[in-house]
Fold:
Amino acid sequence: MSNKSTTIASEKRFLKVLKGEPVDRPPFWFMRQAGRYLPEYRATRADAGDFLSLCYNSELAEEVTLQPIRRYGMDAAILFADILLLPQALGQHVAFKAGEGPVLDALSGSSAVARLQREGIHDTLAPIYDTVSRLSRSLPDDVALIGFAGAPWTVATYMVEGGSSKDFRKSKAMLYDNPQAMHLLLDKLAQSVTAYLNGQILAGAQAVQIFDSWGGSLSAAAYQEFSLAYMRKIVSGLIREHEGRKVPVILFTKGGGLWLESIADAGADALGLDWTCDIGEARRRVGGKVALQGNMDPSMLYAPPARIEQEVGDILAGFGEGSGHVFNLGHGIHLDVPPEHAGVFVEAVHRLSAQYHK
Amino acid sequence: MSNKSTTIASEKRFLKVLKGEPVDRPPFWFMRQAGRYLPEYRATRADAGDFLSLCYNSELAEEVTLQPIRRYGMDAAILFADILLLPQALGQHVAFKAGEGPVLDALSGSSAVARLQREGIHDTLAPIYDTVSRLSRSLPDDVALIGFAGAPWTVATYMVEGGSSKDFRKSKAMLYDNPQAMHLLLDKLAQSVTAYLNGQILAGAQAVQIFDSWGGSLSAAAYQEFSLAYMRKIVSGLIREHEGRKVPVILFTKGGGLWLESIADAGADALGLDWTCDIGEARRRVGGKVALQGNMDPSMLYAPPARIEQEVGDILAGFGEGSGHVFNLGHGIHLDVPPEHAGVFVEAVHRLSAQYHK
Structure:
């Protein structure tokens, strides 16, 4: 008889799909599932004070990570943290202002990039590893734990713009006008992300996802050179097996639907799809090389229950028979969707998926 | 001998490419070429007062339309106007506030949609037709005149959100929660856009472009149903031949790269490509069915001259030999690019394109 923990690990639907093994139904989770649409999250957030305090408070971060699992029974929990903790760990000033989003001291030029300090990042990030470690003990046995970081290009845009951006003027200007500085920044970020994700894996993360929210803002050629190349570098530097278990990697480029073939070729185990891709077409294009995660439009959760159920059914039918699909939204869940509508999604995945997994 | 005007019309590079005829070099223009990056535009705009006053002042709108042609010698001029003149003509309140963008009284629900009045739109839009008519007389003989309107989905997002949006929550909520109201709105817009573009064609526009700036925010299925279906309807209702000349139609969906095959099948003569598509790959996919317009990243104009020249060369090489390419940016020119950099682009198109048109 194998021991309990091994048996259970091998039974987690989410990890099975990422290893290409058959499952009884697609595992599911939501990007940004621990978040403001949940009243219990808003209560804990109010206790924590500001957003960054919540990220660095391991006990409360553990709590908000667990909240959606208790409510919806997802097959995977994702560490509660933020992609901008890394620039902070590198020495950049980062703040979150209510109603405004992140505000950073914008970087410009090679010398500012050179001043970023990779060496001490684990000191700042220690509470995050502690959150992971707590979660690896407290999560139900059948729920996988996902660690994550932002893709170098995506994180770089915030660092160079000084916050969110609509058209990435400053980061594109640096990319085209001073590509050496941008490459220096991206390389530093790739090394830091690798160390950060490995820290999460050593603390107990069973899979990791790299979020490239803004890779889709690049030209086809620039995406290869300034985003995918660095994600590929990270993937090749990650711990891919830990304590006898494979540690799968998911790459998610929002707006990357045109480039799926090359993303599938970057060494990861799964691709995240946004909602602009037809999932059946995506499956044909990547030809079983990687699992697919996605891809319902998060705005579908504004619709009445019957419409949500129909969409879940359409996506299941679009993917078709067999394993290889992690059901998710195509981007983070919106803060103002009714929590019951997320429940309708969950119930529909349970009810409608069996026919594709005989 | 044919008369002068016929001879000259048949010599316009821009129209030739859209008819599939050979040219000596690709014609070029910039989306939003009459705009704030030009000091002469800023001067005229200051004379006009606010943005809407400039749009409705035929004399000044003619002047700003001509300004980039004088400076750069584009092969096509595009009417100076705005896609939100149409909601205004339908009776919705529209204002442009400095530094804030458009502000509309947000529509919600079927009854608000029902109150929009299609019948009187030409009264409001008469000055726009007058601008077109003036331009058809004042433009140099070798410069084509493009009329335009927003795609129904794109215009609808502004009407429902009450302005610009990052994630189109209200318009997606209406689309999924009350699709009947959204279809009613889109149908009304499609009929109005058809009438508006036909008005421009009768006033002298030699080609028209439909701008679907936000079609790429939709799922693959929703794009077909809520955006492309209405553009197809418009295309089928347009005057396609006027005074013995074919009037070509260009469809531009930003973020529509995944759907090029279906857009190419909508009855238009050309597709606009944003910069996320590789133009060579796009040409292979649409197989000569339509001409392609695009697709340099507008942010490339921040780069030094040598980098801009390299990019122009890469796009020319990517498209390859023969006619079928209208060189343009992949979206509107940014307001803060140096005008000299646009000149570098123009010079590079002239210098580097001959080898593909032997």
